[in-house]
Design goal:
The protein is mostly helical. The protein is built from five helices and no strands.
């Protein structure tokens, strides 16, 4: 039997991290997923833009508030979700990078 030391275990985990990950989706599935996602985002964006007039007229919210506050937050919701997801996976460097980049876009 071979005895592994703590330093051997550390080097083994570093080798595992250096290896490239295998893709989970084929190229065709990835392209189809991207196309469907793009279409859904476009439809939702059109709905959002069309609903702004109704909200500002009937809801008592100013167009400035919607344009300067609500739209940037809604527009970067995917980045916020990405930051939370990678933070849960203990990839804090990436999470902080996404969160800071998103905040800079809003500002």
């Amino acid at each position: 039997k071979s005895v592994e030391t703590a330093s051997d275990e550390g080097s083994a985990s570093k080798d595992d991290e250096d290896e490239a990950e295998e893709p989970q989706l084929s190229l065709l599935v990835a392209i189809i997923t991207l196309a469907v996602s793009t279409a859904l985002v476009a439809v939702n964006a059109e709905y959002l833009v069309d609903s702004i007039n109704a909200i500002t007229c009937d809801g008592g919210i100013s167009k400035n508030f919607v344009g300067l506050i609500l739209l940037p937050i809604v527009g970067n919701a995917a980045e916020h979700a990405t930051a939370v997801t990678v933070a849960i996976k203990d990839k804090m460097d990436l999470a902080i990078g996404v969160a800071v980049g998103s905040s800079m876009q809003i500002a």
